[in-house]
Amino acid sequence: MKYLSVVAVPLITLIIAQIIVFDLSRFRFSRKKLSIIILIEFGLLLLLNGTILIIAGLDAYARFYVFAIVIPAFGVFFYTSKRRDARDIFTIIITIYFSNLISIPAMWISQSFSNMYLFYNVARIVIFALLFFFIHTFFRKAYLALQDEVDKGWVIFSILPVLGSALLYYQFMRYSQNGNFPA
Fold it and tell me: What pLDDT is stored for residue 67 in this prediction?
């Protein structure tokens, strides 16, 4: 059961990110065709990731995570996207930030219950449901209107969050090498 909880983390992450990014985007396919493409993508990713886990183990899976989950998901998103420009890059960055808003409180909750992946996954699903309600109800309409009205400048919009993420990642790597975070 514990191994299943560990393996579920990246798959739940993928599903959450895909739901958010698909809610904030416009697509060149009908909903029916898009649903078929997404189901095929999930099936292939489950097959690929399951094969990596069975053959190479969890350590190799962690090393190949970007190639096994992230790049195929980006590829499918750009294939199905209507615009395929910097607006989509910005949408992906916004999705990453929303995913962080889900993961960080879930980590705190998990640490309160002895670092169990089960609590982490359940907390992420509950927080996602609440955040998705906010995104879909209040944020989506204004965001899609902004994407329709503003044609240029999305690269600049994208650079700042990427720089912020890089600085955050650098600080995390710097302070988490021995588990020593500054007080």
Answer: 83
HEC string of 23-86 equals HCCCECCCHHHHHHHHHHHHHHHHHHHHHHHHHHCHHHHHHCHHHHHHHHHHHHHHHHECCCCH
List the helix and strand counts (H, then E) for the chain: 9, 0
For residue 168 the two structure tokens come to: 């955050």
CA distances from 53 to 7, 8, 47, 63, 65 (A): 9, 12, 10, 11, 11
Read off the pLDDT band of 172 (50, 70, 90).
low
**Paired tokens of 137:** 């109800």
pLDDT at 179: 46
d(CA 57, CA 52): 7
Which CA distances in Å does 38 have to 18, 62, 113, 156? 9, 23, 34, 30
Q: Does residue 18 fall inside a structural domain?
A: no
Please report which helix (H) or strand (E) contains residue 100, including its range. helix 86-112
> Structurally, how many domains does the chain consist of?
1
Per residue in 24-79, pLDDT (tens digit) is: 888 888 889 988 998 898 888 888 887 887 888 777 777 787 788 888 888 888 88
Q: Side chain identity at 137, as an amino acid letter? A: T
